[in-house]
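Can you please make up a protein's amino acid sequence together with its fold in token form to help me picture the idea?
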Amino acid sequence: MEFVQPAESTLGAARFEEVREALKDVIDPELGINIVDLGLIYDLGWDDENNALIIHMTLTSAGCPLTDVLEEQTGIALDGVVDAFRINWVWMPPWGIEKITPDGREMMSALGFTI
């Protein structure tokens, strides 16, 4: 499953794709796969009031202690792409392996994971 630009998004198609590609540089430290292909990004939006990207994102488990690492990597990946961003951590629906993209499944297989 891959997130797609919602029709009502104010982000714009070109910018949406640029952000999506930049977020592929953010690697889940436990699995070694990027957060896009793991299916951790649920939605992207734009906050006009604060001129900031809003990333609706989850984790593989609610107890994951790596939010700071992922936020830091996200800041590095989005440097020069957007001026500001905020991660909205969401837990519903819960993440599951069905959210991993076909590319993510190939990466997981290459690392020896069976899904």
In short: The longest strand covers residues 41-47. Strands lie at 41-47, 52-57, 85-89.
